Amino acid sequence: MADISASIQNRDAAGDSSGEAGPVEQTTMIEARNLDFYYGENQALFDISMVVPQRAVTALIGPSGCGKSTFLRTLNRMNDIVEGTRHTGEVLLENEDIYDSNVDVVELRKRVGMVFQKSTPFPKSIFDNVAYGPRIHGMRDRAQLAEIVEKSLIRSALWKEVKDRLKDSAMALSGGQQQRLCIARALATDPEVLLMDEPASALDPASTSRIEDLIFELKENYTIVIVTHNMQQAARVSDFTAFFYEGRLIERGDTEKLFTNPDEKQTQDYITGRFG
Amino acid sequence: MSGPEQPTSTPKLRASGKKDSWFFAFICWLATWSSVVVLIVLLGAVTYQAVGWLDWQFLTSFDSRRPEKAGILSGILGTLWLIGLTSLFSVPIGIGAAIYLEEYAPDTFLTRIIRTNLANLAGVPSIVYGILGLTAFVRMFGLFGQEGYLSRALGVSIEGFFWSDHYNGYLIPLPFGRVVMAGAMTLTLLILPVIIIASQEALRAVPPSIRHASLALGATRWQTIWFQVLPASIPGIMTGVILSISRAIGETAPLVMLGAMTFVYFAPGDVDSLGYLAEHPEGLVKAPFDTFTAIPIQIFNWVRQAKAEFKNVAAAGIVVLLFILLLLNAVAVYLRYRSSRHLHW
What are the ABC transmembrane type-1 domain coordinates in residue numbering (chain B) (predicted)? Predict the structure, then answer.
């Protein structure tokens, strides 16, 4: 507990919430309403209702298999590619149901980018990796592509390290650099929401801290939802935290409140390490 | 576990362990080099017999009843047409089928039957494909022609397409008859299972995370396959294609079954040079529907001849066949290298 509180203290000291008790609830970006989700016969999510505020970091925590990753993947319909999945309820992106039959999944995924746990650079050059998104969406202009690649790499704090070797293979980068490249690649399609599935769990502490700093900067412009197993990390980077357990949303609220004074006993037990 | 099993004697680093591994390495060394030696002896013997027979005259003449005048030109041209058409049919169909089975097909009873039976098809003896090709492509189930079922049932006999005096008859005869096209289609059926299985394995070797990353960026399924999955699997697919085409080049049995001619002194469609093709572009359509022979068939025919000199002619033919095989393999390996160089693994 002590180090989690310390994390929150540190964050406050960094000048995030200027004297206020907690982050102010902003405009809603994503809202799930009574969402049930099934893998075949197995129900993975039970009646999830939750809001994700704009330009803030929402962390999803909970023990393995609690449904937090499944929930994250419903937000850009990545679960569609798994055979035999179905859902009931709604997921609204700026008040539009993303599961509506006339929603174009391509457009949705352009607006809702995703970064995976394992960095997944394509076996191509650094430039081609970042330019892949804009290219498949029809951009051909070389100058414009170069500009987007530079902007995205600057935003993901990788530009300085790679600007002289954009033509080199992305596979030659270190693990932390690869993950920042994946973030740059996701930013290149100019999304509004960034979903991160344990983006730092395979990285060393130094790279992890770089990613966390990056998340902190990115929330100025993007709505971020991050799944993490690391509660210190959730406490450090997020404004809001949601605790999932056995497919149910147990509690969701200000990160500071949830970690210091949760409403539910299950949350209390989990964050103090009594289970999970 | 039945009670704590303490090791009664701690295993020592046995001295014989070293001898074991030395012995095993020697067996492997023997296996490798014995096959290499056999190959060298074979190549040496064939080349020795071919010396003096493998000359420019041999490469540029048609077959003859006199060994010193016999040449392999019709066989070379027939084999090139066969292989060209076979690749044209089998590569796109094979890769397409593999993509469908790996990337799109739902896991139903039917697709499972197809998947399991591909391996069985790859094991079917080539002569069986020859019988199939004879019925399906050479004779077309006896549907066409003056004596065909259609003629008897409808009173109209269909004998081909595009009749013209200029081309001396039908450009595309029906049924095909013993022509290059029938041979190429038969060889296509023969090697398709191998190409499909190899391509499937190559596609499966591409990590799913690459597909997910591409889809998450808003790529469609087709874009993901075209820009990520296929480029990453092309080296593997090419290996399968190289192996199957090489097999098709050497196949004799199905062609004998189809009735490829053994004594041929013309080029398919009279196309004996690129210059002829430039003057008569209709040769591109004519040649596939002309009768033909192939190098392995010619070799088979020469070996059967009574005159002893034909054994040397056959040896020269074998050297040519091996050379063409090596040449095509070299080209394919180069293409494979080039496509994998663009991948930055």
Answer: 76-332
3-state secondary structure of A55: coil
pTM, entire model = 0.80
Q: Which residues of chain B make contact with A116, given a CB cutoff of 8 A?
A: 209, 212-213, 216
Helix (H, G, I), strand (E, B) or coil at A124: coil
Task: Tell whether the torsion through CA atoms of A78, A80, A82 and A88 is positive or negative.
Answer: positive
Residue ranges and CATH numbers for the domains of chain B are 53-139+175-341 (1.10.3720.10)
Collect all residues of chain A within an 8 Å Cβ-Cβ radius of residue B217.
Answer: 109-110, 113, 132-133, 136, 185-186, 189
Mean pLDDT for back-to-back runs of 10 residues, chain A (276 residues): 53 45 70 93 93 94 91 93 90 92 91 91 93 92 93 91 91 90 93 92 86 90 92 91 93 92 90 74
Read off the pLDDT of residues B62-110 as tens digits, 9 standing for 90 and up: 888 888 888 888 889 999 999 999 999 999 999 999 999 999 988 889 9
- Superfamily name with CATH number, domain A2-271: P-loop containing nucleotide triphosphate hydrolases (3.40.50.300)
Neighbour-count burial for B134-173, b at 16+ CB within 10 Å, e otherwise = bebbbbbeeebbeebebbeeeeeeeebeeeeeebeeebeb
Taking CB atoms and an 8 Å cutoff, what residues of chain B touch A168? 344
Task: Decide if A137 contacts B220 (C-beta within 8 A).
Answer: no
CB contact under 8 A, A120 and B210: yes
| Amino acid at residue number A52 | V
Work out the minimum CA distance from B205 to partner chain A, whole angstroms.
Answer: 14
Q: Which of B216, B220, B343 lies closest to A123 in CB terms? A: B343
Q: Which of A83, A109, A125 is nearest residue B344 as measured by Cβ atoms?
A: A125
Of A78, A136, A186, the CB nearest to B219: A136
